[in-house]
C-alpha cells in the first residue's frame, strides 16, 4: 500500500503524458487516480469487490448535479419504502450490526445495500464507493462515519467489537446516511474530476493478460503493491464492506480469493511470479515496474532476493533502475482498537526496467532458492 504522493512521483519519473499506467492490485485506486490526474491513461484490476468498486468509482467522471440528484432520489425512495420490512431485516441481523449502527442508520444502509446497482451503473457505484469510505471509522473524532467506534482502515471482528463496545460503554451515533452522502459527494466532486476515465476490471491478476487484450503491448509503467506476505487478509479486514456490497453478515475466508493471504513464503513467491506472468502480455518493450512490498517475520535481505527471483524468472533481461528503498513504520492505524495485532514492520520499494517483456516459458518454472 502507498500514499498518492508515492504513485504520483513514480508516474512522473517513469512515464510521459498520454502513456498507459497499470496497477494490477488496485486496492483503493490510488495509482489509477494519480495517473488520470497527471494526464496519463490508466488501467487497473483487482479481484476483491471492495477494491473494484472503489477503484472503478475513481475511474469514472461523475458530475455534481447528477450525483446529488441521484442521492435525492434514493432518499425519496427510502422514505417511501415499507418501514416494517426494513425493520424486520434489521432485527434479523446478528447482534454486531445492532450495536454497530443506530436503528435508523442501519435501516438506511439496508435500503441502500439492496437498491444501489454498483456493478452496472457508474453513478450508483460512485455513491456506493462513498458509502464504503464512511461506513465505519473513528466516530469519536469525526461525524463522517456511520458506525460505533471502529478503525477506518479495517473492519474489526464482531465478537471483538462487541466486547470492546460493552467494556467501554460505547453506543452507535445517530447518523443520516443520505445527509452524509450529500456532504461527502459535494466535497469530493467540488475538488474536480479527471478529464479522462480509467479502465477497471474485476479479475484475477493471473488472467489479466487475457481479460485486457485491447491493452496488449501498451503499458509503459506498472505501479503496484501486491498483498504482503503473512500480513493481512483483505477479505477478513474488509468483511463489513463486503457485506455492504451484498456479502454475508459475517467474516469469511477464501470466499473471494484463495490467494487472499499467504502465510508461507514459497506459495507466496510462486503467486507473485504468476502475477508477473499474467501482466506480461500487456507490457510494451522497455516498460518499468515500480513495486512496494512488505512482509512479517521475513528478513529484508531475503525479501529482496526473493522478489528479484520472481522478476528474473519471468523477464530474464530485467534490471533494477535504482537500489531498492527500505522504510520502517512503528505503528498502524488499526492499533486504536486492536493493540495486540502484529502487522508489517517495513516496506521495500523496487524499480525495475524490463527491456523485453516477453515472458520466459514456464512449464517447469519455479522461484529459485533462497525463498524456502
What is this entry, summarized?
This protein has 372 residues and is α/β, with parallel strands linked by helices. It has 15 helices and eight strands.
Task: Characterize the structure shown.
The chain is α/β, with parallel strands linked by helices. It folds into 2 domains: 4-58 and 195-230 and 257-354, Vaccinia Virus protein VP39 (Rossmann fold, 3-Layer(aba) Sandwich), CATH 3.40.50; 64-190, no CATH class. 42% of the residues lie in helices and 12% in strands. Strands 1, 2, 3, 4, 5, 6, 7 and 8 form an 8-stranded mixed β-sheet that branches. α1 (4-14) crosses α2 (30-37), α3 crosses α8 and α4 crosses α8 (122-133). The relative contact order is 0.14. Residues 330-342 have low confidence and may be disordered.
- How far the N terminus sits from the C terminus, by CA atoms, comes to 25 Å
CATH C-level class of the largest domain is Alpha Beta
As a whole number of angstroms, the C-alpha radius of gyration is 21 Å
Average pLDDT, to the nearest integer?
91
Number of strands: 8
Number of domains: 2
In terms of quaternary structure, what is this? single chain
Low-confidence regions: 330-342
Structural class: alpha/beta
Q: What is the CATH architecture annotation of the largest domain?
A: 3-Layer(aba) Sandwich
Note the run of SSEs as H and E.
HEHEHHHHHHHHEHEHHHEHEEE
Biggest sheet architecture: 8 strands, mixed
Would you give the CATH topology of the largest domain?
Rossmann fold
Helix content: 40-55%
